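Here is the promised in-class demo. Please do not try to memorize the tokens; focus on the logic of going from shape to residues.
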């Protein structure tokens, strides 16, 4: 089975961090967002993933492809790259992997993290759509359903139709059929809100042709699409995966839950709660809470919260909230 991951966007809502690293490669407690997604499929699917197809932007080079190739190898999957030259919507993004749409495929958009205690089984369905009950369906595409069978889709309904939101994960028994319907949508210029080609248009066509779509509801759906969401999701993951016993650093206080990678130096500081510090960072004389500190960053004399500090950044004597990109040098007098 192939796993196809559209990830061509630059992730403008997580700038400045996505200026140097595509959003799916950003870490959540030591593991790239996209790798957490792959690990979830390995844990919760009743099928093996043989190949991962990454749909990238035209300017994504070896510095991005390299980590994705290594990740695929770690999970025993072949690695393929496709390119989306221009962002024209979800249907267009998936169609950029038309050469790979054959046999069983899973489509998963790369800023979605989810979890489930159950193993998902896809027998007896032409497609399975992963869904999560939400309080405000008007913000999402939703599935209309009867029992466990989906009867249609509506993008951001203004009146209540369903409270099961589409989380961006889809299984198809026949990738060729999906490719056929995507081609129909694009060739006939069928656009939705914002002038984009929507994947749900192709799915609706398949339902009208009698294809059986079933629901798969998840226990947890975590967003990494904005800076606040990335921080919140990191806090949730850190709490779930917090190591015990806590690491100890002489002259410092560690307030759980935290994630502290190998090679981190902490001196005379208070770290936590809900803090993630990546490998090689140095924290000296600082207080950090509810924040992300990326690899090789150096903080001295800082008091920060709800903040994100980029890789190789030097932050000195700063107090408050900050979002500093990679390789920055910031000093408050």
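The designed amino acids, position by position:
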């Amino acid at each position: 089975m192939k796993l196809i991951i559209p990830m061509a966007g630059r992730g403008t809502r997580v700038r400045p961090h996505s200026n140097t690293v595509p959003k799916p490669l950003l870490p959540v407690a030591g593991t790239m967002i996209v790798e957490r997604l792959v690990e979830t499929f390995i844990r919760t699917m009743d099928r093996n993933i043989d190949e991962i197809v990454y749909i990238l932007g035209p300017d994504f080079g070896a510095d991005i492809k390299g980590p994705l190739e290594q990740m695929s190898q770690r999970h025993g999957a072949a690695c393929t790259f496709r390119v989306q030259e221009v962002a024209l919507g979800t249907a267009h993004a998936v169609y950029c992997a038309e050469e790979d749409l054959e046999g069983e495929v899973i489509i998963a958009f790369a800023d979605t993290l989810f979890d489930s205690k159950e193993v998902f089984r896809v027998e007896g369905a032409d497609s399975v759509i992963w869904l999560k009950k939400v309080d405000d369906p008007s913000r999402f595409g939703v599935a209309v359903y009867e029992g466990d069978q989906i009867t249609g889709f509506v993008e951001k309904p203004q009146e209540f139709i369903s409270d099961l939101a589409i989380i961006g994960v889809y299984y198809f028994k026949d990738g060729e059929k999906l490719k056929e319907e995507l081609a129909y949508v694009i060739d006939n210029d069928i656009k939705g809100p914002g002038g984009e080609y929507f994947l749900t248009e192709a799915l609706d066509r398949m339902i009208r042709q009698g294809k059986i779509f079933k629901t798969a509801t998840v226990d947890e759906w975590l967003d990494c699409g904005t800076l606040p969401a990335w921080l919140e999701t990191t806090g949730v993951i850190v709490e779930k995966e917090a190591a015990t016993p806590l690491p100890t650093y002489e002259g410092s206080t560690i307030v759980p839950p935290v994630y502290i990678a190998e090679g981190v130096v902490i001196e005379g500081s208070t770290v936590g709660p809900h803090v993630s510090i990546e490998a090689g960072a140095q924290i000296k004389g600082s207080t950090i809470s509810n924040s992300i500190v990326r690899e090789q960053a150096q903080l001295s004399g800082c008091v920060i919260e709800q903040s994100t500090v980029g890789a190789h950044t030097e932050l000195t004597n700063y107090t408050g909230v900050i979002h500093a990109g990679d390789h920055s040098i910031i000093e408050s007098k």
